[in-house]
Amino acid sequence: MSLIHKFKQSDDYYVIDVNSGSVHAIDKLVYDILDENGLGSKEEVSCRLNGEYSKEDISEGYDELKELVDGGILYSKDLYEDIAIKSVDEKSYIKALCLNIAHDCNLKCKYCFAEEGEYHGKRMIMTAEVGKKSIDFVIKRSGPRKNIEVDLFGGEPLLAFDVVKEIVEYAKEQEKIYNKEIRFTMTTNATLLTDEIMKYADENVGNIVLSIDGRKEVNDKVRVRADGSGSYDAIMPKIKKMVDMRDKTKQYYARGTFTRENTDFFEDIKHLANEGFKEISIEPVVLPESDPLSLREQDLPIIFNQYDKLYDEMIKRHKDGNEFKFYHFNIDLQGGPCVYKRISGCGAGNEYVAITPNGDIYPCHQFVGNEDFKMGNIFSSDELKEDIAKELKEANIYNKPKCRECWARFYCSGGCQANNYNFNENPNKDFLTPYELGCKMQKKRIECAIALKAKIME
Ligand code: SF4
Ligand code: SF4
């Protein structure tokens, strides 16, 4: 089990104490002395570094490190495993919903996991009745939790703006009655935004995720209409207008996907930053290897290089007072998120579920349409299928052999359960084997995120 992780980012060296989460900026000598498997004896270290540093320097560096180790600051013990074992039997409350407002979409993006909105089924739009019943469902299932998150998702949710409005207005009434706070997020391809919709969303939706892949030529290759034409020229002005309305206090993301077609995705992030967006997310596509857009092992060096370039750019812009945030570099080094989240991640099937237009319940939007994972229906009085929830809950970092050993376990929390299930190399599909390519990118992003935070806090 990795107890520390050392890495170099740009010209700086860092070590993380995995179990406590403490991060230390170190010099090259200390970096070279440190061994991920434990601190060896002074003789062993002197012998290993003989010729690279003077005996005195090695001795001094070693003594300083030894103090940290003896003080329990490095190679500290794991305090969470008992909590993980207990949490499996604790009752979960649902605090977040993904409402698939429309199993339909007016774009035909080439990498869409929802099969252009259809989710392996037929096209369908949620009725206000299903939406309201879903709000009742989550209020009832949220138990003592006050804060509830609802994602207005698709396909494209704005194909049914009237339904969205009815659901939001209903939720506003119900949250007062039940003393809850319901916060909405909406993910939209931005094509259908009008002044009226923007005004309503701005006033009523806590976070708006606006899909755009970056440069026009990149966006227009994949985010296309039925006739094959690109969407960039139609969406960019609308996204800008929507973001301008949000001012500095309200949340949004300009969010895109990178594929094999744009492994130079740093250019897309830079493009969005140059267009004035301050909250940006560009995520790796996850597709079977047979898909021409899928990312492969051989793409990793260029992908890592893009994250390095992004790190340098963000440091530079921070110094110039012109910074932006990159979703995957957001990390909290001071204690968050909570222990349960660190161990189990997203909470799919337990704290979070997705509801389809006909009221079927799945552990999350990525499982929608896979009948093996249907947990119930909001119109049925039957209990949810607890075996699915339990299997997902048990898939925490301590039960995943690779995660158990991994230095990134408390930041990554064991990866996306759906990606693990769908894309790991285990022929007997399971949640317990991580999606390897995702792990490698995740670890690189975590290093960049930690270094960025440390550097900015200097
Ligand atoms: S999913 Fe991968 S990166 Fe994440 S903790 Fe597990 S092994 Fe590490
Ligand atoms: S399983 Fe993956 S896609 Fe589903 S909620 Fe969790 S992290 Fe998100």
Give an account of the 3D structure.
The chain has 458 residues and is of the alpha/beta class. The chain contains 17 helices and 15 strands. The chain has helices at 28-33, 42-49, 55-70, 81-87, 128-141, 161-178, 195-204, 216-222, 232-246, 266-274, 300-320, 339-344, 386-394, 401-405, 409-412, 417-423, 436-457; strands spanning 4-9, 12-17, 23-26, 96-100, 102-103, 124-125, 147-153, 181-188, 207-211, 251-258, 279-284, 325-326, 352-355, 360-362, 376-377. The strands form three sheets. A ten-stranded mixed sheet has the order 12-11-10-9-8-7-4-13-14-15, covered by helices on one side. A three-stranded antiparallel sheet has the order 1-2-3. Strands 5-6 form a two-stranded antiparallel ribbon. Strand 7 (147-153), helix 6 and strand 8 form a beta-alpha-beta unit. The longest helix has 22 residues, at 436-457. One iron/sulfur cluster (SF4) is lined by residues 346, 348, 352, 364, 366, 416-418. One iron/sulfur cluster is lined by residues 346, 348, 352, 364, 366, 416-418.
